[in-house]
Amino acid sequence: MSAKPEVGLVREASRQIVAGGSAGLVEICLMHPLDVVKTRFQIQRCATDPNSYKSLVDSFRMIFQMEGLFGFYKGILPPILAETPKRAVKFFTFEQYKKLLGYVSLSPALTFAIAGLGSGLTEAIVVNPFEVVKVGLQANRNTFAEQPSTMGYARQIIKKEGWGLQGLNKGLTATLGRHGVFNMVYFGFYHNVKNMIPVNK
After folding, report:
1. CA pair distance 193, 36, nearest whole angstrom
2. Is the CA virtual torsion 15, 128, 64, 70 positive or negative?
3. Neighbour-count burial of 199, counting CB atoms closer than 10 A to its CB (0-12 exposed, 13-18 middle, 19+ buried)
4. 39, 138, 171, 191: which has the fewest Cβ within 10 Å?
5. Rounded distance, CA 143 to CA 63, Å?
6. What are 61-112's pLDDT values in tens digits?
7. At the fourth CATH level, which superfamily is domain 3-196?
């Protein structure tokens, strides 16, 4: 008798991961060109740089002319590879942190927020190496065919800089802050608003 709820829980979790991963894949494919452009603007040095972009339209035009259509999809493999484990970690750890916080006398709102913070920090540790590789590939202005592969570039980083905060985990502090705060607000706001909405019977 006790095995059935566990099977149902695993099945439901699997459905959520597959559905969430599929939605994430579509989102990545649609939004990645903008992510490439965003990264280029963030790393360009100054307006006097001959390779700098003057506007959003100019960036799209230059990338297309110099790097082709696939230039907008540089670095797309790392976020695709990270999407399913990221979502699995996000929701699984949220539930686990929420259970742990059940042993402490906290309000539901605070419980959801703290559990969300914990899930975001855990998620950040998982996704940060993928982010480092993605940004490095996006910053490469060679044609798509000339740039290194995802695994090849990851190996380059590990060989030169290692696994630490100067290598494959560069920028981890900022990623922890971003994912931690986002998930804290997301889960806290979502569950509290959800509980305020009356259920039709």
Report:
1. 34
2. negative
3. exposed
4. 171
5. 9
6. 999 999 999 999 999 999 999 987 888 888 888 988 999 999 998 988 899 9
7. Mitochondrial carrier domain (1.50.40.10)
**188 exposure class (CB count in 10 Å sphere: 0-12, 13-18, 19+):** buried
Cα distance between residue 182 and residue 37, in whole Å: 23
* Tokens of residue 181, six digits: 């705060």
| Apex 88 CA angle, 86 and 91, nearest 5 | 105
**Sign of the dihedral defined by the CA atoms of residues 186, 189, 192, 195, in that order:** negative
- Do the beta carbons of residue 52 and residue 46 sit within 8 Å? yes
What is the CB neighbour count within 10 angstroms for residue 194? 10
Question: Contact 169/129 with Cβ under 8 angstroms?
Answer: yes
